[in-house]
Amino acid sequence: MAVRTHDEALMDFALVAGYLSRSALVRSAAAGAVFLGLMASADAASAAGCGEVMQPGRHPISFNVDGVSRSGVYFIPSAYDGSKKMPVVFDLHGSNSNPDGQLNRSSWDKVAEKNGFVVVALQGSLPGKTSGTFAWNVPFVPVSQTIIPTGAQGGMDEMAFIQQAVKTVKQEFCIDPARVYASGYSGGGRMLSAYICSGHDDFSAAGFVHSLRAGRPVEVEGKWLPDPVNCTPGRPVSIMAFAGVKDGQNPYSGGGNAYWQYGFKTAIQRWTQLDGCKGNGDTKTVNGVTFSLYGTCQNGARIATYVFDNGTHDWPKPVPSTQAVLAAAKDGETGMAKVVSVSASKPAFDANVDPASRMWDFFGKTDSSDVVATAAPAKVNAAAKPGTSVASDCATEAENQGTSCISSQPINMRRSGQGVQGAL
């Protein structure tokens, strides 16, 4: 197979519109880079996605959407051998971020390596505040209301991009079409909300971190509500959503930017109506984290939520097991006895939440009742506090110092956080 330059590969986009060919995969072992190019033959472009081993790890990918090249990053787990169809999760970054940064934040690639599935992180079309960062051109949200540089122009058709990306991935990878999922953070979750609301039914389930919407906000008799005309899903969809009560960017109770306005509870209430859910949700609270589950919705759909009393807009980061202990542990042997005593009783659920892992469990169990992770007794660390911390190290530096914090770290680094606080 002849190796072509990137520019030559892009020229092929004009030959076969809409998708990429597996036979045009070009790999560079030295650089670890893989991109997809098009073949001139429509027959080659329609070849099956299975049958070829692919290099594990992260790789750049390009998509042809109506003659325009769009970008992303995909992750292949070590277990991928091209013979067994795998699930896939699409990961959408927040504003002022990028696909690599989002994977660093969400750790979807680490979850994929452990559980054996493909991840595809897509890139928005609007420019971000710092070099190498981007945002989503969310429908019905004017660019002037988007958290990007003042004076930024345009933005592409993100709906067409996501739809084409899903189609391409199904064709070019060994994917189980019944197990296609999506996750979005902040602006990426608002984009994902709009995509599902528009009637696209590509995803069997979806997860949202500080971002769930149920249509654009409209004011009715002095109260902000989701526009019912603006959200008409193609079918009931299972949803897991995370929210922080102290989120200052997308406020839990509503308000904030013009694109937000109605709160998290209102969004959930609307989705329970859209999914035809019964009951008021089975709610449990442990260590300031409240879990709710609407387990009986139409067509087997479910809606699950995690609300953090002290949660901000940052992506929740689980505390290591050695730190997830009661503050009483600092009292020495007496405190140790207290911890052992409390840990002996099984809590309602594990409040030490890793969103990607929890979403993955939910995606795989949307047709069963077991969607709540149980807790294991934690080891003692006297300096630790219970609950969930946040991933904000690289993000805080990027926001405060104006640096881009672009990711070049290996995939085993845990959430360096490309613009976590700045990714909206």
Automatic annotation (TrEMBL):
Localization annotation: Secreted
Is the Cytoplasm keyword given for this protein?
A: no
What segment(s) does the record annotate as region Disordered? 401-424
Going by the entry's taxonomy, the superkingdom of the source organism is recorded as Bacteria
A GO cellular component term found in this entry reads: extracellular region
* Polar residues composition-biased segments: 401-411
Keywords in alphabetical order, please.
Carbohydrate metabolism, Hydrolase, Polysaccharide degradation, Secreted, Signal, Xylan degradation
An individual GO BP term: xylan catabolic process
Q: What is its main location?
A: secreted
Picking any one GO molecular function of the record gives: feruloyl esterase activity
InterPro entries assigned to the protein according to its UniProt record, in alphabetical order: AB_hydrolase_fold, FaeB/C/D
Identify this protein by name: Polyhydroxybutyrate depolymerase
